[in-house]
């Protein structure tokens, strides 16, 4: 067995273990009959395989070859567990309050992925109508959310989200500490340091000066902690 095959098996085993712990059902999909793939939360297959989604829904997908590439695995897991979280927290207990609370927790994750979607979803939540059935509202939000997460975030998007979150500490950090924070984020934006540098620094200050809103942001925990090692590889 080659080293890459061994790594692939290890990562698949870890994913299956985590999925089992989260009590997520796993089902096999017949690629010849893909008209109604839901309800499932994601798909892993051979390179080149695609799983047909309904016309208004983007399904998380990952090829076996991409599992060994941190940026692809991070992206897939973020989509996968965001969708699962939405199903659990919104669809199963549907209310405007549940939808608003969900959006609030995902604010900076959405911002990192897409500025356009961040503004669009923000307006959508701010203008919920009592005249539209709630299940229709939730379905449309889910559609927009998964579309926003369909393309992995770039350095510009991550930088914007990091800078916004860094602003929460402007009153508690001294000028040197604020400068270090901004400098580290900009160095990441320029490709000089990895994502883990500003990410870890932000998390460090969050432990020193806890902020309830930031602590609860899914930006810091988009998937189970078993995969947190990915953050140091982006």
Automatic annotation (TrEMBL):
Lineage, uppermost ranks: Bacteria, Pseudomonadati, Pseudomonadota, Gammaproteobacteria, Enterobacterales
Identification of the protein by name: DUF1722 domain-containing protein
Domain DUF1722, residue spans: 107-224
Domain of life of the organism encoding this protein: Bacteria
Pfam families, A to Z: DUF1722
């Amino acid at each position: 067995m080659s080293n890459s095959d061994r790594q692939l098996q290890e990562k698949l085993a870890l994913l299956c273990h985590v999925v089992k712990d989260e009590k997520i059902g796993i089902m096999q999909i017949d690629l010849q009959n893909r008209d109604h793939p839901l309800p499932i939360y994601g798909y892993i297959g051979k390179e080149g395989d695609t799983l047909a989604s309904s016309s208004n829904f983007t399904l998380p997908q990952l090829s076996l070859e991409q599992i060994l590439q941190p940026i692809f695995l991070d992206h897939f897991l973020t989509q996968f567990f965001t969708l699962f979280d939405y199903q659990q927290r919104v669809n199963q207990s549907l209310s405007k309050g549940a939808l608003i609370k969900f959006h609030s927790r995902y604010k900076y994750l959405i911002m990192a992925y897409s500025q356009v979607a961040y503004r669009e979803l923000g307006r959508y939540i701010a203008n919920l109508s009592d005249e539209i059935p709630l299940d229709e509202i939730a379905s449309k939000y889910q559609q927009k959310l998964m579309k926003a997460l369909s393309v992995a975030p770039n350095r510009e998007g991550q930088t914007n989200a990091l800078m916004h979150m860094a602003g929460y500490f402007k009153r508690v950090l001294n000028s040197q500490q604020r400068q270090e924070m901004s400098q580290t984020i900009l160095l990441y934006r320029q490709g000089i340091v990895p994502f883990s540098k500003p990410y870890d620094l932000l998390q460090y200050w969050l432990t020193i000066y806890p902020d309830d809103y930031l602590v609860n942001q899914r930006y810091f925990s988009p998937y189970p902690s078993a995969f947190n090692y990915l953050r140091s590889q982006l």
